Amino acid sequence: MIKRFTLILLLAGLGAIFAGLMLDYVPDSELNRTADYYAKNTAADLGAANIVTAIIVTYRGLDTLGEVTVLFLTAAIVGLVLARDRHDQSQPDRELPPTGELLATGTRLLLPLILLFGAYVFSHGHLTPGGGFQGGAILASGMLLMLLSHPLRRFGHRTIAIVESIAGLAFVFIGVLGIALAGGFLDNRILPTGTLGELFSAGAIPVIYSFVGLKVGAEFSSMLLNLSETEEL
Amino acid sequence: MTLSIGIALLLAIAMVVSAIMATRGRRSLGISILAAGLASLLASVMFLLLGAPDVAMTEAAIGSGLTTFLFFFVLGRVRRGEHD
What we know:
The complex is a heterodimer. Chain A has helices spanning 2-24, 33-46, 51-59, 61-83, 101-123, 132-149, 157-181, 205-229. Chain A is mostly helical. Chain B has one domain. Chain B is elongated.
């Protein structure tokens, strides 16, 4: 009884707080100073059609490097915790149930399309919504589809680790190149900015975002792979 | 303006209904997982309506795509373990 009463009181309190926030809310009639700067100068400075991507990759590029590092740490810890109980699945000790015909055929049709779409999303991050993180997640969901339909056929840990390491190193290397050739760390103007709206424009943004996409995809895939190989569930 | 507010309200109601289905549904775990994925998908449409297509893509790819797949994957593992 007292539990239910506390719950109702808590919900009423939360509702009152949110109602107060809602009633006080007045939409801004103009952009604030930072947003105004980004909206006015992104296209001229960096040549990126998608302002969000320009902010994520160039203006706040260091934060993105931090995010990728956090994701890398997560993947490493998942690997560390789960790898203890890994056993060799190339010779399963019991017969795996056969995959359904629908799943097997659907995977054969969909997997190339999903991987292609993921690559499209991260290579067009400077033109259309989306980018490295979204594209990487799409790549990883393609990987998961493959794990579902063919539990034994997979990319090895080695391939994934190599892709991830090269992508991470290249990301930092391009950033350092920005100090040497352009305005600062992760400056995208080490390559010509080109014409606004073309695929090969916005300097290093598509290159950086492709590496971020590959890295995120590899990290998610290694987590899924570790999860599928552990015996402790 | 009124039309988009109406659509947003409908979306919000559908989100709440699918969230309740996901958490309180007693019929099967599969339906609950699908309802959770649906709530994510509706949330991504909501982000799109609010003018944040980048966030909408993240939500659609991770929240409704990868997580739903992952839940089904784990559910399959758990069921396979039950038969041992």
